[in-house]
Specification:
With 495 residues, the chain is α+β, with helices and mostly antiparallel strands. The protein is built from 17 helices and 8 strands. It folds into 3 domains: 158 residues, no CATH class; 137 residues, Orthogonal Bundle (Lysozyme), CATH 1.10.530; 116 residues, endopeptidase domain like (from Nostoc punctiforme) (endopeptidase fold (from Nostoc punctiforme)), CATH 3.90.1720.10.
Length: 495
């Protein structure tokens, strides 16, 4: 169970107000009971990719003055104002509106978890509280006739349903499956990059320094949209669009090779590194950045996860077959999550935020965990707590339970929008949520298999055994949940 938890679904799990739960149910439509994929996608689009402007609009809707003196003093420097010189009472409405939006965007980009409720929770409470802390619920919200607990429930419902600040143009799709690797075919990789970056236009120059001067987007040009500094006068050409195709292909091939070398030959990391650079890709890999993050939003309008998913779809269904390659048909959903989970058997348990998802690896030495326990492991050790393990397993299957559903810790799952499953219908990959123990700690496990005699085995992370296979404890099970599996990719046509 995590220590930083209060997200959209976490608020439902702790508070359970009917308006909040109904809001999620209405948005989910009938997907949990066999509804359309579009209905399920609506849930993903609504909660998975937090929109700073929409969050700020929602906060402004709920209270007449969301920027109070405390927030002004804390965040005024983000808009270049010294709060000691310009006091809150002397600030203008324009300044406060700007501060709210900039602060919300900053909180989304710098705070884990990157969920829609993280900014308002920090805004009014000051921090994302520990799991054991319920005092946040009673925090007063100025201008709101009630406490923060009720406010967050209203916030989520308004964010999802208010037509004044809902949007349709964001065509989000779930992250692509990563439980098994695709073949890395350089010709197909280059073709996919060109398709998304320039539409195969080697002369693309709409952001060129030569025509528009330097800008904050980096001045990308050419078929691969090399930014000005990355191109770095390659082969004597000032900008990429000025170079002939073979020269642009040459540098792109060199860069693709470097990315593949750095990420164990997995082409799924090429779009990430191309979109946010090698450093950004490492941030995604170690969990510092969520796939829901939209880099440099003044110039980009697609999240990292969206870009990667679209890229891999084109690569596996169009570019790879065109180059004579064959896409790997990966296991999907629950079976993929279990297959990956089995590779982690033996990993030790540590309820230490920042490491409990298995990434980044343990830095070495002793760290005091989220509930005061001391953990000591050699540098490079992969560790998990119970919820970190199931999140990591389903991420490997192409479903990010944090980004798509706001599920960060075990206490968030019982009242989450995931499909509720009957005990008699469990299958591998389902999630069994346990009741809180006498010590006040919850637990969640992954269903591993159901034997012929009906015995249900789990794969889970516990303090005493680390990641291991066990038998389900039905006496503690309070809920069985099933994430929506990503659609299996179509089998490629024979060449």
């Amino acid at each position: 169970m995590s220590t930083k938890a209060l997200l959209a679904a976490a608020a439902a799990a702790i508070l359970g107000p009917s308006t909040f739960i109904l809001g999620v149910t209405v948005i989910a439509g009938g997907a949990a009971a066999g509804g359309s994929a579009a209905a399920a996608a609506t849930v993903v689009c609504t909660y998975a990719y937090p929109d700073a402007e929409r969050i700020a609009d929602t906060m402004s809707t709920l209270t007449d003055e969301p920027v109070q003196a405390a927030q002004w003093d804390r965040y005024a420097d983000l808009i270049g104002v010294d709060p000691a010189e310009v006091r809150w009472g002397d600030s203008t409405d324009v300044q406060r509106d700007e501060l709210l939006f900039i602060a919300v965007r900053n909180l989304l980009n710098t705070t884990t978890p990157a969920a829609i409720t993280t900014p308002p929770l920090i805004w009014w409470h000051g921090t994302v509280p520990d799991d054991a802390d319920t005092t946040w619920e009673n925090t007063p919200v100025p201008g709101w006739n009630g406490t923060l607990g009720v406010y967050l429930a209203a916030f989520v419902e308004d964010y999802a349903t208010n037509p004044d600040h809902t949007w349709d143009e964001h065509q989000c799709i779930p992250p692509a499956p990563t439980a098994c690797g695709q073949p890395a075919e350089t010709t197909a990789i280059l073709a996919t990059i060109r398709h998304f970056e320039s539409g195969d236009d080697y002369t693309q120059q709409s952001h060129a320094v030569a025509t528009g001067g330097r800008n904050g987007g980096g001045n990308p040009t050419g078929a691969y949209q090399f930014v000005y500094t990355s191109w770095d006068n390659y082969a004597g050409y000032a900008e990429a669009f000025m170079a002939p195709p073979n020269v642009q292909d040459e540098l792109a091939t060199t860069n693709v090779t470097s990315i593949l070398d750095a990420f164990d030959g997995d082409p799924a990391w090429v779009p990430v590194a191309w979109y946010v650079g090698m450093g950004g890709a490492r941030n995604v890999q170690d969990g510092t950045w969520s796939t829901a993050y939209v880099p440099n939003p003044a110039f980009n309008h697609m999240s990292i996860g969206d870009y990667q998913a679209r890229w891999l779809d084109y690569y596996t269904t169009i570019a790879l077959p065109a180059a004579g390659g064959t896409a790997t048909v990966c296991p999907q959903g629950g079976p993929a999550a279990v297959a990956w989970a089995e590779t982690q058997i033996g990993a030790p348990y540590a309820a230490a935020n920042g490491y409990r998802f298995g990434a980044p690896p343990w830095p070495g030495g002793t760290i005091i965990g989220d509930r005061g326990h001391r953990y000591t492991f050699p540098a490079g050790t992969i560790v998990y707590d119970c919820s970190g393990f199931v999140v990591a397993a389903w991420r490997a299957a192409g479903v990010d339970l944090v980004a798509q559903y706001g599920l960060y810790g075990s206490q968030a799952f019982p009242n989450s929008p995931l499909e509720e499953i009957a005990r008699s219908a469990v299958v591998p990959g389902d999630l069994a949520v346990y009741s809180v123990s006498a010590s006040g700690v919850g637990h969640i496990v992954l269903i591993h298999d159901v034997s012929a005699d009906g015995t249900v085995h789990t794969i889970e992370a516990t303090p005493g055994k680390g990641v291991h296979i066990d038998t389900i404890d039905w006496s503690r099970v309070i809920s069985i949940k099933r994430p929506a599996s990503p659609e299996a990719p179509p089998a490629p046509d024979p060449p």
